[in-house]
Automatic annotation (TrEMBL), chain A:
Originating species: Prauserella sediminis
Keyword Methyltransferase: no
GO cellular component, one term: plasma membrane
Signal peptide interval: none
Spans through the membrane: 6-25, 32-54, 60-81, 88-106, 118-143, 176-198, 204-220, 227-244, 250-272
Stated name of the protein: ABC-type branched-subunit amino acid transport system permease subunit
From TrEMBL, chain B:
Keyword Electron transport attributed: no
Higher taxonomy: Bacteria, Bacillati, Actinomycetota, Actinomycetes, Pseudonocardiales
GO biological process terms, semicolon-separated: amino acid transport
Organism: Prauserella sediminis
Protein name (database record): Branched-chain amino acid transport system permease protein
Family membership noted in the UniProt record: Belongs to the binding-protein-dependent transport system permease family. LivHM subfamily.
Location in the cell: Cell membrane
Listed GO CC annotations: plasma membrane
Keywords: Amino-acid transport, Cell membrane, Membrane, Transmembrane, Transmembrane helix, Transport
Length: 306, 296
């Protein structure tokens, strides 16, 4: 067990940081905001933490805190700026924002180290710290998924007009998701960089956006559990797929495309649907007496309330 | 100066052919195909593999790339986008899943090409085509540039007029406005979608072959970059306006060439990203787009 832990420590740690990155896209998506600003804040956070450690000698905790706060602030400001966009347009505006950051840091001179990036920003972080941060984040998100708050967020996603007719300030919820997503992105970026000790402009690329999105779609976008499942799948897939060797990326593509076609709610959505179907069958079996009508008719009768 | 303008026109023509394919599928059948860049790259790659075996003239190479592009896009439609559109209940959910499906599909040709070429750039060195250099009014021109500009502008104007005047063009635009009403009017949506995707893929293949002839070689990863540039072009011109795509392609190429000519090479990519951002911020419907009337 301990041997296994030490030989897989990089994968374990990147599971935690990748989960935070995925959550930074999942949180807005759950409120119907299709934003990748969190990925841009991942870059901002990573660079801020590295600059703080390398140029100003900040402590690890201060650097991470700074990254999270700055990420949240930048994303909130961005949210104010582009709040009238929706759907794919919002998505592409935030993708453009993310990619502009990588161009900015290439041209940042000595402060960002230009195209070769920054080195030697090794933070004092271990798996325990990561786990603690993730547990706090997940606990906070669970709180937003339950009860009246969870229902309000669902209303904002499913029907913004209805939600505002019910007295929910839709725009405020949308802006809040920007801030949360920026904080999560900043956390993820700063911790990733402080674990690796380096950051380069190439770390903030389109592929990162794609990774975050595929994790959520394959795992399921309604809850942090989906993001966790997706993260585990995509972080550990190279390890599991080692037997297909160089064709790993082909398998990856096929899996993602198949998930888009056959799993509209992701793995968690399919699991929830499957469970409901099972429950309904059992209820029907219990409800129908031996000489009851054939199951098809019973299903049609119950089908109305599904 | 004039040389820079010529370069910008050549670059813009390639952008135009590529972005036109993307805009065609997006503004009519509502498919923003994220595998468009991979289609572009893999068509050129297919032609590259064949020219390694047989020495072919330029038109044959271009034809192979066009056919490969059409085939890839048709397969994408049949295997991924078609099933998604049939299964999805509402448009917004389908949009997102088409995006993801495209991303997944795009990973497959990219992985194959990177595996075969070891991520190194590839070109058409096996082709019999030799570019002729000649001077017109003191400008250095090659036959490649001439072919690209003529093909780009010809196809750009052709697609634009076809969509605006022909019967199929009308049917396609009707789907773009309201697909349900269109199908009530007798528009066969599935068949048109397949044809549109094939055309769109053929345009990607053409752009792939032209750019590879122009640059000598392209890298397997170049498709992704071009995808975002094409998005910038469509957004700038306005979704649904083919004339806007023509303007957008040359504006972007001109701006990028200008930044390069100013010796600010590291900022070139920021042009397209910044353009997307600014246009969406200031004029979300683009230069020539109609304002979208959509609830919420």
């Amino acid at each position: 067990m301990i041997d296994w832990y030490f030989s897989h420590i990089v994968l374990i740690q990147s599971t935690f940081t990748t989960l935070l990155l995925a959550l930074s896209v999942q949180v807005p998506l759950r409120a119907g905001v299709f934003s990748f600003a969190g990925v841009g804040c991942y870059g901002i956070g990573g660079y801020l933490a590295a600059i703080g450690m390398v140029h100003y000698g900040l402590s690890t905790a201060t650097a991470i805190l700074l990254a999270a706060v700055a990420g949240g602030a930048v994303a909130y400001a961005l949210g104010l700026l582009i709040q009238r966009l929706t759907g794919l347009y919002l998505a592409m505006a935030t993708v453009a924002f993310t990619l502009i950051i990588s161009v900015l840091v290439v041209n940042g001179g000595d402060l960002t180290g230009g195209a070769s990036g920054l080195f030697g920003a090794l933070g004092m972080l271990d798996t325990g710290h990561l786990l603690a941060v993730v547990v706090v984040v997940v606990a906070a998100l669970t709180f937003t998924e339950l009860g009246p708050l969870g229902r309000r967020i669902e209303a904002v996603r499913e029907d913004p007009e209805l939600a505002s007719a019910m007295g929910i300030d839709v725009a405020r919820y949308r802006r809040a998701t920007f801030a949360v997503s920026g904080m999560l992105g900043g956390l993820s970026g700063s911790m990733t960089v402080l674990l690796r000790s380096t950051v380069t402009p190439d770390d903030i690329n389109f592929h990162l956006v794609v990774l975050a999105l595929t994790i959520i779609i394959v795992g399921g976008s309604r809850s942090w559990i989906g993001a966790l499942i997706g993260t585990v799948i995509f972080v550990w897939m190279p390890e599991v797929l080692a037997f297909v060797g160089e064709w790993e990326d082909v398998v990856y593509g096929v899996l993602v495309a198949a998930a888009a076609v056959y799993l509209p709610g992701g793995v968690t959505g399919a699991a929830v649907d499957g469970y409901r179907k099972y429950r309904r069958k059992r209820r029907e079996a219990a409800a129908s007496p031996p000489d009851a009508p054939p199951p098809q008719q019973a299903a049609a009768a119950v089908g109305g309330d599904s | 100066m004039a040389q820079h303008i010529l370069n910008a026109v050549a670059l813009g023509s390639v952008y135009l052919v590529f972005a036109l394919g993307m805009a065609l599928a997006w503004s009519t059948i509502g498919i923003l195909n994220f595998a468009h860049g991979a289609t572009f790259m893999f068509s050129a790659f297919t032609a590259h593999v064949i020219t390694q075996q047989v020495a072919l003239p330029m038109p044959a190479v271009v034809l192979i790339a066009v056919a490969a592009g059409a085939l890839i896009a048709t397969l994408t439609q049949v295997l991924a986008f078609g099933p998604i559109m049939r299964r999805a209940t509402e448009h917004r959910a389908a949009e997102l899943r088409i995006l993801i499906g495209g991303i997944g599909v795009a990973a497959i040709p990219l992985a194959i090409a990177e595996r075969v070429t070891a991520s190194a750039p590839f070109g058409f060195r096996g082709s019999t085509y030799q570019a002729q250099v000649f001077e017109v009014f003191g400008l250095r021109m090659t036959t490649t540039v001439l072919v690209i500009v003529v093909a780009g502008i010809g196809i750009g104007v052709g697609v634009w007029r076809w969509l605006a005047t022909s019967r199929q063009g009308l049917a396609l635009r009707a789907i773009g406005v309201d697909s349900e009403t269109a199908s009530l009017m007798g528009v066969d949506r599935a068949t048109l979608a397949l044809g549109t995707m094939a055309t769109s893929g053929a345009l990607a293949g053409l752009a792939g072959a032209l750019l590879t002839f122009q640059l000598g070689a392209i890298a397997p990863a170049s498709g992704d970059q071009l995808l975002i540039k094409a998005f910038a072009i469509v957004v700038l011109g306005g979704l649904g306006s083919m004339g806007g795509v023509i303007v957008g392609a040359f504006v972007l190429a001109g701006a990028e060439t200008f930044v390069l000519a100013m010796n600010q090479g590291t900022w070139v990519d920021a042009v397209s990203f910044g353009l997307i951002f600014l246009v969406l911020l200031l004029r979300p419907q683009g230069l020539f787009g109609r304002k979208e009337v959509r609830r919420t």
